[in-house]
Design a protein that fits this description.
The chain is built from eleven helices and 14 strands. By secondary structure, it is α/β, with parallel strands linked by helices. It has one domain: Aldolase class I (TIM Barrel), CATH 3.20.20.70. Helix 3 packs parallel to helix 6 and helix 7 runs parallel beside helix 8. The longest helix is centred in the middle third of the chain and has 20 residues.
Length: 356
């Protein structure tokens, strides 16, 4: 093992979970779940990557008619629970640990792929432009601002998803509050223009996430729960007027929950909003910090060794290298990801990347 990357291979304890290394498979949408059903191809994909310290699944729907990608998996039905159970059993047999990322897309969904159902958000503000899904290209529509009744439904849906994830044999759940999806739409002031208890101050904008978090912790316990944030990411037409202050507030706010981890994306897909949110998170957050976006193995190891973060999640590099931990350990070359097959429906570019 290269001494330069040895920090990545130190074990880590999260609650009663023992992770064999600090290398995490980041949640990656892959659009292989036809009709929102997990399947044998997904089982192979996740099992191939069980050598990581932790696998986090792709974003998974907590309620029906709330899809952003047409072939995104769900966790709202008993059939989905049974199908996911085959995946978690296989990952565990291969020596892996796996969390489910539970999610609602909010205004990033499309009526055309959700039986005509109108999308919801913090405010009635549409994403500009269109999105391409396996079902076609769709213009974003103006969402409805969630009512108090609608908010209660969302909270209950996340709790139901958490219960089902437990039935399906997962080791924990990650609440998706990033990348411009529903909980993030409440959190950032570019998309939240409410003047009730769910808008305005940081505390109010974080209220929905906090209420979801309390319900999910009630199911799982705090150390089996993570949260993902992306304070800078402009994806899905997102922006906040002060992402650094928001990061610092959220880290202080989340300290009280003693979570399994806090997962922060450090950059903006668009390259427009720039700041060092990781340094600010490291300063404030007291628990396990997981960092993400564009880390090389060497930078990841240096980040762990310096104590800046406890875990690093890898996206496209783990997508293209099912044996990423072994390649890092040996200092081997990495396969190159093929973006043309990121969101197709078959095995090509999914389960056929070569191992050493």
């Amino acid at each position: 093992m290269s001494t330069e990357t040895s920090a990545l291979f130190e074990p880590l304890k999260i609650g009663d979970l023992s992770l064999k290394n600090r290398i995490v498979l980041a949640p990656l949408t892959r659009c292989r779940a036809i009709d929102h059903m997990p399947n044998a191809l997904m089982k192979e994909y996740y099992t191939q990557r069980a050598s990581g310290g932790l696998i986090i699944t792709e974003c998974t729907l907590v309620s029906p008619n709330a899809s952003a990608f047409a072939n995104d998996p769900g966790i709202y039905s008993e059939e989905q629970v049974a199908a996911w159970k085959e995946i978690t059993d296989s990952v565990h047999e291969a020596g892996g640990k796996i969390f489910m990322q539970i999610w609602h897309p909010g205004r990033a969904g499309h009526p055309e792929i959700n039986d005509g159902e109108k999308m919801v958000s913090a405010s009635a503000i549409a994403i500009e432009g269109s999105s391409t899904t396996p079902a076609g290209k769709f213009e974003y529509t103006q969402p409805e601002a969630l009512t108090e009744k609608g908010i209660k439904y969302i909270i209950a849906a996340f709790k139901h998803g958490a219960i089902n994830a437990k039935k399906a044999g997962f080791d924990g759940v990650e609440i998706h509050c990033a990348n411009g999806y529903l909980l993030d739409q409440f959190l950032r002031d570019g998309s939240n223009h409410r003047n009730d208890n769910y808008g305005g101050s940081w505390h109010n904008r974080a209220r929905l996430l906090t209420e979801v978090l309390n319900e999910v912790i009630d199911v799982w316990g705090n150390r089996h729960v993570g949260i993902r944030l992306s304070p800078l990411n402009g994806f899905n037409d997102m922006k906040d007027s002060d992402p650094v202050a928001l990061t610092r507030y959220m880290c202080a706010h989340l300290n009280q929950f003693d979570l399994g981890y806090l997962h922060i994306m450090r950059a903006d897909f668009k390259g427009e909003q720039k700041a060092d949110v990781i340094a600010n998170a490291h300063e404030i957050y007291e628990g396990n910090l997981m960092v993400n976006m564009g880390y090389t193995p060497q930078e990841a190891a240096d980040t762990i060794a310096s104590g800046t973060a406890a875990l690093v999640s890898f996206g496209t590099s783990f997508l293209a290298n099912p044996d990423l931990p072994e390649r890092i350990k040996q200092g081997a070359d990495l396969n190159t990801p093929d973006p043309d097959t990121f969101y197709t429906s078959g095995a090509e570019g999914y389960t056929d990347y070569p191992t050493l």
